[in-house]
Amino acid sequence: MFNLGFLYTPYVFSLMILKLRCAEYGFECDFSIEGEKNIELLEKLRAHFEEVHGIEYPIDAVIQMIVNRGHSLESIKK
Ligand SMILES: [Zn+2]
Question: Cα(12) to centroid of ligand 1, in Å?
Answer without folding.
Answer: 29
